[in-house]
Amino acid sequence: MRDVRLASSQGKWILLTTVLGSSMAMLDSTVVNVALPRIGEDLDANLAALQWTVNAYMLTLAGLILLGGSLGDHYGRRKVFVVGVVWFAAASLLCGIAPTAGVLIAARALQGVGGALLTPGSLALIQASFHPDDRGRAVGLWSGFGGIGAAVGPFLGGWLVDGPGWRWVFLLNVPLALLCAPIALRHVPESRDGRSHGRFDVLGAVLGALTLGLLTYALIEARQGSLVVVLTAVAGLASGVAFVYVEKYSPDPMMPLDIFASRQFTAVNLVTLCVYAAFGGFFFLTALQLQVAVGWSPLAAGTALLPTTAMMLLFSARSGALADRIGPRIPLTVGPLLCAAGMLLMLRVGPGASYVADVLPALLVLGTGMVALVAPLTATVLASVDTARAGLASGVNNAAARAAGLIAVAALPLLAGMGPEAYRSPAAFDDAFDRAMLLCAGVLVVGSVVAFATVRSLPPDCRRPECRHHGSITTPPLEGERAGRRIA
């Protein structure tokens, strides 16, 4: 029942618990990159293991996030949200005590499952609980506070790695969950979707995650050139074909393929793939570059990345308003080009680099490009489909961005010529980092060309984004009443 007012004590508790829950998942998307060199040193892990430390989480999260929202609609949004919070905390505890890289990678995959349950659930709880007159403001506060969490993530991760150690990057989630779950159980009303019929596209979710997993393995292990890698790549492609077949003929698909009948929706998702592939590869490698090649501490490296998320948080709403006036085509064309220029400026960042003269200009240009494109991208996604399918469109776009980052983290070190021990050699890593930045810039230029050629003006009566302030650097925001789940 949507009758809770934001000004009431219950409304404040609901907002607090949803912010805590979403912040747990958002923090883990940003803080872990800063800890990677110390993790590799402590667990004697090679570059492939560090890639899997990032990708195991993104794999299960990207593959299951659409299904996670559907489970909440059927079994109860609060119940599934709390299960996700507890699951995420338990997996975080396992990450924090992991004795080997293999255990850490497995625990990270479990973390992603928890994230897939709580991430869409946090927004769904707000939309199902608050009075219609307060829902827009509640969503705005939720996205704003979540953006603050994303902004402080790299700084917090660096401080923890330099202080109590990298394990606390994960252990920090446990007290957050101990605070979040009881508040949710006590103050958040339970809600379900009365139209939910209990049929879930489990096969589609499994095939989607399997496709991403097999292709990721093949890309990370491709340096070996073994028959196993070739067979894995073939199996990944076959699994992808099977996924498309299941989604086409399933009576209740997780991702109905007819949504891609909209040419603009398809085009914007192609832009999303290009943009977020570049972002995923950039932030993964830059956190390593600043520590391995430049020689900074984890705290300094994490603090250095603050400008991009701060700019997103401060100016994303204004960017959305500008795009409403001039249309999305120019922002979606110019934004990726500015991001590409920022990545080219990172070619100046190497041993002996100055933060003010070398790193900061690149991040400011990159942040300007991100501000220009993220809000218009979300608006175009929502406007490209019927209003009733806005949540589905947002969920698909969010999952596409996560999948793009996943593939980029797997493929970019291979394409840039990074060996298994590259991060242990400052000179070797610096050379490969330069090649990687050129590749990222090229992908962004492709995204700009696609946007210029395909994106058109939005109809005046289209659905507008509710999340005006956005601080995530890894994914576009979830939007719509049913964001993150299938709509019947």
TrEMBL record:
Alphabetical list of InterPro entries matching this protein: EmrB-like, MFS, MFS_dom, MFS_trans_sf
Composition bias, Basic and acidic residues: 479-488
Every Major facilitator superfamily (MFS) profile domain range: 14-459
CDD domains: MFS_MMR_MDR_like
Protein topology in the membrane: Multi-pass membrane protein
Pfam families on file: MFS_1
Annotated segments matching region Disordered: 467-488
Domain of life: Bacteria
Localization, UniProt: Cell membrane
Alphabetized NCBIfam families for the sequence: efflux_EmrB
Descriptive protein name: MFS transporter
Taxonomic placement: Bacteria, Bacillati, Actinomycetota, Actinomycetes, Kitasatosporales
